[in-house]
Amino acid sequence: MIKVLNTGFYSSIQDFGRNHYLEFGVPYSGVMDRKAASFANALLGNKEDEAVLEMTMTGAKLQFQVETFMVISGADMSPKLNDYPIGLNKVVALKPNDVLSFGKLNSGFRCYLAIWGGFKSETIMGSKSMCQNITEQFKLFKNDELIVCDYSTDIIYKNASVRFNVSYLTSDIVEVLKGPEFDLLSDDQKNQLLNKSFTISKDNNRMAYQLEENLKNNLKPIITSGVLPGTVQLTPSGKLIILMRDCQTTGGYPRVLQVKESSIDILAQKFTGNHIKFKFISS
pLDDT tens across 196-208, in order? Predict the structure, then answer.
């Protein structure tokens, strides 16, 4: 068991989400940054999509009540174990009454805590991912108790880390494909999309990232159609909205771009005021 002493800004249990329920209006959900979460799980010998704790902007404070192992990956939030600094992307042994805390955000925006064997929260529609209106709670609260396994004596603990390429945490290049309505744009609009730098607005969360800069728009709304995480919509006012993991399953705004899966990881580590540039790829 792990007791939540403090939740941080926004912390939730996430795996790789719900893949077969779009027709019922159920979002995918799941970790915003799959690269970091799957790497942390891999170091522990877990399945890559095992449930992890996702923390946004500020980390949680947790008290462990079992012996186990953990890995922290993604954003650098200055983690400490019993007030002593610990490294990212390495296996760390835990004992009962150990307290994990976090401090200053040094890079990135979302941090992932993987536990040996994964978090054992309730599975709903094939996933443990917390999501508003789908699961009983959509984020952690103070004094929550999280179920985890005692570690197996079969695991061999080594005080070593594996190099993890963190360059994506600061990359501003977001690779994109043509969206279904891309060819309806004028040449000028296409040039702006692919040559202009855009700023992440304060309206950013697990559902969508809105960009500050407008793109002149005279396209008509479309018949409500399917959308996915990574779909870039163009609103009548000219705002660009990038849909993220908890996005709706349909929408009526033109879908001008589709973000490559690996670039969603890059976006997940961005926050208000950060800049991005779209880079067109053929496939």
Answer: 999 999 999 999 9
